[in-house]
Amino acid sequence: MIYKNLFFLLYSFILFSLSFSLDGDVHDFFLPNGLKVILQERHGAPKVAVSIAYNVGSHDESKEKRGINDIVTKAIVLEGTQLYSNKKLSKRRDEYGAGYGDNASYDLSLFWTEIHIDGLDFILDVESDRMTGVIINDDVLEKMKERYSVDWNEWKKDEVGFAFKNALDEFMPKGHPYQSLWPDPSQINSLTTKSCLSWYESYYSPNNAVLVIVGDVKPIETTRMIYSYFGDIPSSDDIPPDPSLSVEGIELTASMSKHSASSKYFTFPGGVIGSFFYMPSAREDDAVILKHITNIIELSIEKRDNLFKRFSKNRRLFINAEVQYITRLGYSGFFLYSFNVFKTGSVNKINKQILSTLKYVGNNGIEDKLLKQYKRLELLGEYEEYYAYNLIARRLIYAELILGDYKYYNRELEILNELTNDDIKRVVKKYFTNDNRKTIVISMNDDKKSWYTPIVSFVANQFVLRLWDPDK
Amino acid sequence: MITLNKIPGGAFFIYSIIICYLITPLFSENLENKLPYIEEYQLDNGLRVLIAPNYDNPVVYINVYINASTLDDPVNHTNIAEDAFYSLDLGTSKYPSEDHIRDKLFSLGSDDGRFKWFYINYIHGTIQDYFLKKDLNEGLELISEILIHPTYPILLKKFLLSIVFHLSPKTSLIRNHNLLQSHSLHQYANIYKDILPKPTSGKKDLIKWHHNYFRPENITIMVSGDVNAIYVKKVIGKYFGDWESTEYIPEKRNYSINLNDNTGIKLRFINVESNKDALISIMQGAPRINDEWLYAGMLAHSIFGEQGFSSRLSNIHSKFNFYGKLNSSLKKHPTIPYVQVIGEAQYKELSHLYYEIQQEFNNLSNNSITKAELDRSKKIRLHDYNNRLHNPRRLSTFIQDNYNVNGYSLDEISNKWKYIQSVTLEEVNDAASIIFDADNLMMVVVGNKDSCAIFLEQFENVEYYEHAEELRESASSP
């Protein structure tokens, strides 16, 4: 009798627990058509983030179809669907004060919305319609091509940005699927309606997608809604396999890409010298550590602390810098750009100093104070983002499609908690080598140079900028 | 008596379901239309404190509201409010230089050594940032240093900047958006701002301004997040309790609105030869904070120009293929409220854009708002309020603005939902006819004079300015 009573007490407790929605709980399941669903309960605010990502990116494009994924996602976003014209969709979103966006990258294509919980039904309807009812015909394709051409011409006016794009294209290993995200308009113009439709039907299907919902949801009710909106969508049986994204066998050697450009933001002559290093796939733990190292260098630049002083030789080699880490499924990339005014700077000296500083970090690690401040900064950022359900949803998607399992969605934070100087030293020594490096040099506003520029440069760099740091 | 072992299994199952059903609502909280708990108190020196607990994360958000603004500039010393505010973090008694303050902020988790929000506008000044729960004491200490003990050091950086300003070509430092805004506010309410950048004020003037306007009665501190109210009171008492107020309280400057029912259409044109497109600003009246028709006015404006793609203004923008920008804002200032439409147009389309806006003003003046539009507008507004309640940052901004700018009590703030709901169709149409008067408005256009010639021909008495020309003493008057 005691056991029987205990059983009922336990059963009652489980039922009681299920009646509550527990913050942070994650549920996942597949629909029979192959759609993967990840649900995370967050009850801090009455809103929900709905993100749907398709396992397709520019890396899936063959040479003849460069830019096709960009055109298809543009059609989805700008033209709307049979049920939701763009105007109707905008009106409904406005009513709920929804935030939304899209992103088509090398590895995936993503559509996201963050909306009041009352709007969940509506957004699921929109996303399911996007999976079946997108309008792609000759008229739409022509419009998209025209738009691409306008954007391209506008973008080309930003000569510095364009020089960076060209340099990055040059750095792509020949024949690798990671070719330019923005091909020349002539390549776009060769795309046909048939090929775009076929692309959409193959890749934008439930068995190639992940639906992530984060927010103030009731799991049982939400699951019912998901089945109702997505359950009847047929799966695709001709999704091409992913291409190989490895760089193995591809020759990687140090090289330099030189450009001259006019800057529309910067009125004086000047220059940018960038060091690009190939980095491992995002799936490797080392990639996470490298991303943290990038952020630490960024903090050091902001602080103008000893590490930045070492990189720049106390701002004698360059006056400011920026770092960037490009995370990808295949290989990733680390960029450090240095800036100068009235001069471009010495490529050899800057390259040598950057490598020597990285070597120093490889041997000695990062100052404890800087590492501690970085950890605090990240922790605070994590708390600040607590209500940004859209960011949490994107993190889950990124973990599922790029890292291989959504359960890794907190991996950056977990690794950070354990991060030591030994990890930093090991990783820096392994990846920051001269053979693994490319250099970009952009000389800016050469037309504004005159006979007295060297004198102005000398005064500015040796005196004024020694006393005054405008970027601080 | 019924005991556990006398209940049969099936009955126990049903019993447990019923218990769950009955208990669940006790644990779930519906935050819709309901302000969270906020504690309010005042120090003896007049400084007000608001405390809003939220235990989702071990983090606190500090929001300091300073009731001093650029409108408090003396007549003969414009821009001093900005100078005094933006020099606050250059050094204090305890942190002698900007670098010391930056270091402190970095050590508290800042990514750039600056407060997340640190600005002054023509309504108020504010300092805001997140801190870890354990850093609350240090965060408040730093803010108290900046507010109470700034030293206004004379810096080489300031000196060098003043040289750069003097040597630069006059037009290179002026951004057209600011030009448009400065002229619009000057035309509308005689609000004067220097067009050309000036060297910052002297140390003596800054200290005097600080002494007069940075005073405890002008400050409201809101602390939200994972806080213990008793501890917050103790820390605030420690750092702000001894702050003594000076006796002299400067009176707020009075600004009169130049626009009334008999103004007609006033146009000021600023010639900027190099402008690729024309910029246009149209200013109209708006309800004051204490006007009974405030909420009707807000909804009427929302129907006309709410950000997004579904307002009447957005319909106008669609006729120009969404070229450039076209937006509208309602500023709920206690004394000089206004509605402003700002647009960017190709020169050949400027007259067309003006005509479309005029037509819409006429429509709005003639009872054209429908029940569906009103309901939709209410829904948008209520969603906006609800979206602010859960995040410490958004909540504190919402509360501080209403508490200080609007002068509302916390009870009054919690009635905002009710006020919005109660606006009738008649009220919103009446409000629209007051705000959107096509025959009385003030307008500023910035652009190339020759390219705007056709547009300008349709107006009499155009007031002309050149690009870098300072504002003239007397603005347009009724």
Cross-sheet strand order for the largest sheet of chain A? 1-2-6-3-5-4
Relative helix content of chain A: 40-55%
Under the CATH scheme, which class of the largest domain in chain A?
Answer: Alpha Beta
Q: Given the C-alpha coordinates, what overall shape of chain B results? A: globular
Do you know the CATH topology of the largest domain in chain A? Cytochrome Bc1 Complex, Chain A, domain 1
Spell out the CATH superfamily of the largest domain in chain A.
Answer: Metalloenzyme, LuxS/M16 peptidase-like
What does this structure look like?
The complex is a heterodimer of chains A (about 475) and B (about 475). With about 475 residues, chain A is of the alpha+beta class. Chain A contains 17 helices and eleven strands. Chain A has two domains: about 25-230, Cytochrome Bc1 Complex, Chain A, domain 1 (2-Layer Sandwich), CATH 3.30.830.10; about 255-465, Cytochrome Bc1 Complex, Chain A, domain 1 (2-Layer Sandwich), CATH 3.30.830. In chain A, about 45% of the residues lie in helices and about 15% in strands. The longest helix of chain A is centred in the first third of the chain and has 19 residues, at about 140-155. Residues about 10-20 of chain A have low confidence and may be disordered. In chain B, α2 (about 80-85) crosses α7 (about 205-215). Chain B has helices at about 10-25, 80-85, 100-105, 135-150, 155-165, 175-190, 205-215, 230-240, 295-305, 310-320, 350-365, 370-385, 390-405, 410-415, 415-420, 425-435, 455; strands spanning about 40, 50-55, 60-65, 115-120, 125-130, 220-225, 265-270, 280-285, 325-330, 340-345, 440-445, 465. Chain B has two domains: about 40-240, 2-Layer Sandwich (Cytochrome Bc1 Complex, Chain A, domain 1); about 265-475, Metalloenzyme, LuxS/M16 peptidase-like (Cytochrome Bc1 Complex, Chain A, domain 1). Chain B has 17 helices and twelve strands. Helix content of chain B is about 40%, strand content about 15%. Residues about 1-5 and about 20-30 of chain B have low confidence and may be disordered. By secondary structure, chain B is an alpha+beta fold. The chains are: A alpha+beta (about 475), B alpha+beta (about 475). Chains A and B meet through α1, α3, α10 and α13 of A and α1, α3, β5, α5 and α12 of B.
